[in-house]
Amino acid sequence: MWRTLVLLFRRPGELTRQYLRGRRKHYVLPLRLYLTISVLVLLAVRLSNLLDASPPQPAVQFDKDEPPKVELNIGSASVQFGFKPDGKGFECSNLPAWVCKRLEQRLGTGPGALANDTRGLKARLVDAIGPAMFVLLPGFAAWLALAYRNRRLRYTEHLVFALHVHAFWFAMLGITLLPIGGLQGLAWIVVPVYTWLAMRRVYGGRWWAQALRSAAVASLYGVTMLAALVVAALWALLA
């Protein structure tokens, strides 16, 4: 594991190259590496939420004269739902009718149920990340296979690269949980740079062609991730 982690962090993409060249006994298998890191990081995220001493600040607005309301911002879309000012009726905006009806069924006991339910919303969102990644990972590999179809690589080989890259992303997420200022900003810089270097080492090619392919993969994956986040948020709200 330590040999694998050192290579994963020191030389972006080299772990994938070693695996594709057949040196598989020297390092942890890609799926096992990804599962180990992702599970540990998600547990750390859940633990940090439980141990957070600061008062929670969910997107719930409490007012003496108005019942609580929830507002979720997903990308450029804003979703709102809550009880009417008189507390006798449910209303929501920018949501399908069946979703609004399901929310009303879950929270139909009154504004107090809405306030209590939002306390577990963040935990359910964290729980939804793991299953969502099992959709995002194959999607990322599929976009790589589409962008680099002239490399004559099998889909499983693209999937190996996706597993290694996502393992690094989860590791960076875990690092940002450390009580050190500036780590989140550093992660926003390190993650795209690391991914770019890893793609350069594994797929090669001229820098301008690599830039175009990377931009295409990032755009397609961004759409896929947004869709997965919407599904995860709906699951957290309706489950």
Describe it.
There is one protein chain. Helices cover 65% and strands 8% of the residues. The chain is α+β, with helices and mostly antiparallel strands and 239 residues long. The chain has two domains: 2-53 and 122-238, no CATH class; 60-119, no CATH class. It has a four-stranded antiparallel beta sheet with strand order 1-2-3-4, covered by helices on one side. It contains nine helices and four strands, in the order αααββββαααααα.
| Helix/strand structural class | alpha+beta
What's the pLDDT, averaged over the residues?
81
SSE sequence, one letter per element: HHHEEEEHHHHHH
Overall 3D form: globular
Runs with pLDDT <50, length 5+?
55-64
In whole angstroms, the N-to-C terminal distance is 36 Å
Q: Helical residue percent?
A: 55-70%
Main sheet? Answer: 4 strands, antiparallel
Order of strands across the main sheet: 1-2-3-4
**Tally of separate helices:** 9
Number of strands: 4
- Rg is 21 Å
